[in-house]
Write a sequence for this structure.
């Protein structure tokens, strides 16, 4: 746990202010990460069973999609809200109210689609939704009407309600049954890594103030991330099998691991 915490803290501190003077933080992150991996592979009861990475390419792809997905999600939650206050000039309460359509849309979408176990269609639509939302950010200015701000929130609410459940379903079908707990925990870890990258991106593009120019640079960055997320989803044919069988139907039949 100590090695894991030190690796993540060093990585976070480096990403918050990357520069030549802080190179040692990246070295420490790599060194402690390697030490953590060495220890976990030899422990009878590891803190995080990193053996789940071994040979399961569809599961690794799902972790990669989770990283990209949450980079965009948290960049919106952190950066877009900050811009509405400092760039658009809304009060804190007004900026919060402008975000309500995002969460309302996400609740409705997840309620309508959550019972369907398939993941590929949800992830494709969710990725497209993120691409559209990032594109809308490029249209915003200091004088953008409130209805446009709310439209951005509504569009982003669609992938918000689709992607998280779809990623969880994918892990459930792709992971080895005996390592399900570790696999689910690693999905959250990659999500938090996405949050770290999003925070670093907000700091890099906004600087001291979240102005419209910084928002457009941030939008271009997360637009590229969203396109990569979409491409990884479209080309991954293993996702077609997610939700097609029931892992709980029998304990004796071999289960799909994506290998």
């Amino acid at each position: 746990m100590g090695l894991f915490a030190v690796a993540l803290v060093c990585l976070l501190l480096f990403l918050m202010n990357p520069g030549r003077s802080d190179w040692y933080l990246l070295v420490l992150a790599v060194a402690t990460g390697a030490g953590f991996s060495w220890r976990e592979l030899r422990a009878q009861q590891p803190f995080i069973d990193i053996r789940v990475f071994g040979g399961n390419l569809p599961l690794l792809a799902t972790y990669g999609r989770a990283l990209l997905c949450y980079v965009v999600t948290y960049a919106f939650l952190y950066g877009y809200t900050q811009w509405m206050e400092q760039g658009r000039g809304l009060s804190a309460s007004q900026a919060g109210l402008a975000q309500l359509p995002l969460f309302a849309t996400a609740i409705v979408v997840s309620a309508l689609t959550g019972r369907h176990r398939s993941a590929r269609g949800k992830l494709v639509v969710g990725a497209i939704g993120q691409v559209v939302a990032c594109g809308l950010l490029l249209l915003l200015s200091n004088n953008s009407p409130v209805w446009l701000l709310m439209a951005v929130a509504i569009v982003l609410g669609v992938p918000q309600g689709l992607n998280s459940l779809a990623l969880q379903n994918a892990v459930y079908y792709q992971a080895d049954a005996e390592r399900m707990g570790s696999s689910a925990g690693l999905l959250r870890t990659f999500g938090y890594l996405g949050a770290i990258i999003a925070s670093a991106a907000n700091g890099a593009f906004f600087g001291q103030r979240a102005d419209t120019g910084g928002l457009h640079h941030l939008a271009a960055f997360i637009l590229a991330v969203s396109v990569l997320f979409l491409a990884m989803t479209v080309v991954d044919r293993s996702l077609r099998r997610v939700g097609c069988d029931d892992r709980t139907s029998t304990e004796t039949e071999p289960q799909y691991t994506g290998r």
Summary: The mean pLDDT is 85.
